[in-house]
Structure formats: C-alpha cells, structure tokens
Design goal:
- The complex is a heterodimer of chains A (about 110) and B (about 120).
- With about 110 residues, chain A is mainly β.
- Chain A starts with a strand and ends with a strand.
- Chain B has about 120 residues and is mainly β.
- The mean pLDDT of chain B is about 95.
- The chains are: A mainly beta (about 110), B mainly beta (about 120).
- Chains A and B meet through strand 5 and strand 10 of A and strand 5 and strand 10 of B.
Chain lengths: ~110, ~120
C-alpha cells in the first residue's frame, strides 16, 4: 500500500499570505495525485488532479506541482474561504489519502 | 449536472451487515471509463477509500477490508450498493460515494461527492 505523508499537520497563515502544503508518497506514483479541500460538515472538494490540473471552477490561486514522490499544493494569497483541511490522494495504485493539513488563520 | 446521494441506516449493531445505496444522476455507469467509489471518514480523521466499481463491472476493494466488502451496480436504476459485513464500533464514520474521473495524464480524482451519511455502530 502506498502511504502518503502530509506536512505540516497545521499551517498557520495570515490572510493574503502564501501557503505551501507538502505531500510525500512512499513510492513513485508518477503524477497520479489529487488534492482536496474539506470544510466542517462538508464532503471533500476536488481541487487538483494529475498533480497540477485544476478542477473546474477552482480559483487560479491554487496550484499543484511535483511528480514521482514529492508534491506541493500552493495557495498564492490565502482568502478567508481557504481556511480548511487539505488532503492529498494518490490513484496510481489503488487509492489512498494523506492524513491532512489544517490551514488555520494566524 | 452530476449528483450523488447516499442512503442507508444511521445506526447498526456490532456484527451486523451494513448496506448502503448510492443513487446518482447526470452520468451513466454504462459509459466507458466511468467509476463510482465508496470512501469513509471516521470523525476527526482522514478519508479512507473502501471500494470502486467500473462501467464494465470490474471491482476494486481496499486490501485491508476486502473480505468484508461487496460492491455492486444497477445501471438501469443508476445505483451502486456497498455491503460491509461484521460491523464494529471502529467502523463508525461518514460514508460517501463519489464519481471517479477517467484516469488520464490530467485527471483521475473523485470530482463529485455525495453529502455523506453518518453510520454509527453501537449496541
């Protein structure tokens, strides 16, 4: 089973600042990685697939990068709506999720 | 547009079998490359993928739970059913069904999700 490790567990950021979230895979998954945003009481929302392709309707301030085993999600200028929990998920070999990064207001 | 909705019991007793139904619209499970998956999320924890069924009836199960899971589809009724046997309190979670994007160089995630249904396992 491919294990995804996200860091940091909590990211404290001021509105307008940039936030960078990391996801490391235990073995290479090419670019078969997705990122999700989840707010309390809601289902996860797909942000990024293919490591870097934004889903329909996702603002351009969200960008994904990486391949192989190292991936990042960058939020260029955090808005109030962006404070949430973010999960990475791989679909190269079955499907597994990381443990999440909580983005909170500093 | 694509919508999915989960239905089933909110409370099950230990050792019982859980049956959940996902009713969807906006796509057909007979279309090539389409898949519907089940994902659960215990309170305060990360999501965990359980099972997925493809348009051609190919099925995939989480290795750690495969002996307890069965996924089936009824294409004519736009439904996918998940059964999980021998339920335990640790299986308490919100259970989601989701539409899986075709896997290409730029897609492959779960792009549409149901609202989820909280299942509590308790005697």
């Amino acid at each position: 089973e491919i294990v995804l490790t996200q860091s940091p567990a909590t990211l404290s950021v001021s509105p307008g600042e940039r936030g960078i979230l990391s996801c490391r895979a235990s073995q290479s998954i090419s670019n078969y990685l997705a990122w999700y945003q989840q707010k309390p009481g809601q289902a996860p929302r797909l942000l990024i697939s293919g490591a870097s392709t934004r889903a329909t309707g996702v603002p351009a301030r969200f960008s994904g990068s990486g391949s192989g085993t190292e991936f990042n999600l960058t939020i260029s200028s955090l808005q109030s709506a962006d404070f949430a929990v973010y999960y990475c998920q791989q679909y190269g070999n079955w499907w597994t999720f990381g443990q999440g990064t909580k983005v909170e207001i500093k | 547009q694509i919508t999915l909705k989960e239905s089933g019991p909110t409370l099950v007793k230990p050792t019982q079998t859980l049956t959940l139904t996902c009713t969807f619209s906006g796509f057909s499970l007979s279309t090539t490359e389409v898949g519907v998956g089940w994902i659960r999320q215990p309170p305060g924890q990360a999501p965990e993928w359980l099972a997925l069924i493809y348009w051609d009836d190919d099925k995939r199960y989480s290795p750690s739970l495969r002996t307890r899971l069965t996924i089936t589809k009824d294409t004519s009724k736009n439904r996918v059913v998940l059964t999980m046997t021998n339920m335990d309190p640790v299986d308490t979670a919100t259970y989601y069904c989701a539409h899986r994007q075709p896997r290409t160089a730029t897609s492959g995630g779960f792009d549409f999700w149901g609202q989820g249904t909280l299942v509590t396992v308790s005697s």
